[in-house]
What we know:
- The protein is an alpha+beta fold and about 300 residues long.
- It has 11 helices and 12 strands.
- Residues about 1-40 have low confidence and may be disordered.
Amino acid sequence: MPSSIVRGLSESQVTPEAWFDPRRRHLLALAAGLSLGWTNRHAFAAPLPDAALKAGGEKLTGLGDITSYNNYYEFSTDKKAVKILAQELTLKPWTLTVDGEVEKPYTIDADELTKLFGSEERIYRLRCVEGWAMVVPWSGFALSKLIERARPTSRAKFVAFESLKRSSEMIGQRSSNLPWPYREALRIDEAMHPLAFAVTGLYGQPLPKQNGAPLRLALPWKYGFKSAKAIVHVQLTSTQPVTSWNQASPSEYGFYGNVNPEVAHPRWSQSRENRIGELQKRPTLPYNGYAEWVADLYRGLDPKLSF
Ligand code: MTE
C-alpha cells in the first residue's frame, strides 16, 4: 500500500492487516481521497470454499507415490532416488529468517512454526511443468501469517524464498544443474493470497525430507517449481528477485509459473496432465483449476507473460 494513503500512521498500523480487511482498505483509501490500488483489486477477501481448500473432493494421491516420486535437484535429478538420498539431511537445528523490507525482521527455529502459526489441512492439486500431477493433503498455515509477523513496509513488493545450501548433505549441489541455493519468489500480493500455503506436514504427519522438510511452499495454481522446499530465508524486496529456474533457462521458466494449458513449455505441451495413479490423461485447467480465486491477481497481464 502506498504510504501516502495513510499519512500519519506508521507502516505497521496499515500493513499488512489492512490488505485483508476490505472495509479498512476502503476507508483508508476514501479518507485520503485516492482510488484503490493493487491491494484492493487483487486481494481475495472472501473465505475460500472447500472447492479451493479441499481440491473439490478429488481423489488423493497415495502417500507412497507422493513420497517416492520427487523433484528435488539438491539431491538428484532422478525422481526415485530422491527419497533415499534426502534421508542424509539433518533437520535439527533449523532456523528460518524473515527480513528485508520489513519493520520487524525475525529468526525462529523451525520447531516453533506450528506453535506460532498453527496448523490446518489443505488438499491441493500439485501440477509439475513436466506434465505429471498429484492431489496432496498438506498441513501447515497460510503463508501470509509468516510474512505479517515481520510487518512489511510499503516498499515490499516481492517475497524471495531461499532454500538450504549444504552440499555436504545435499549431493546434487555438487553439480551445477541449477545455481545454488535454490531460489524462488512471488509478488507480495501472490504471497499474501489466502491460497498460498506454508507446508510443515503431509497426510497428518511431519513433512518427509524428500518433500521439503521442515518447511516448503504449496502454491496450487502455479507449476510445482515455484513451491520451494527446505526454506531457510524469506526476504521481502522492493525489486523483482532472481529465481533459480528463470536464471538457468529463461526461455523455459518465467517468473510467474502460472499453470496455463495455452502456453506450451518448449519441451512439454501443457494441454494435458498425467495424474499419478491414473491411466487416462486429463485436460490441464487454467491456473490448475484455481482460476476463480486467483485470476484477478493477473488482470491486465498478458497470459503468455504470466507463465
Ligand atoms: N525446491 C527445491 N529446493 N529444489 C527443487 O529441486 N523442485 C520443485 C519444487 N520445489 C524443487 C523444489 C519442483 S520442479 C517440483 S515439481 C516440486 O518441488 C515437487 O515437489 P514434490 O517432490 O513434493 O512432489
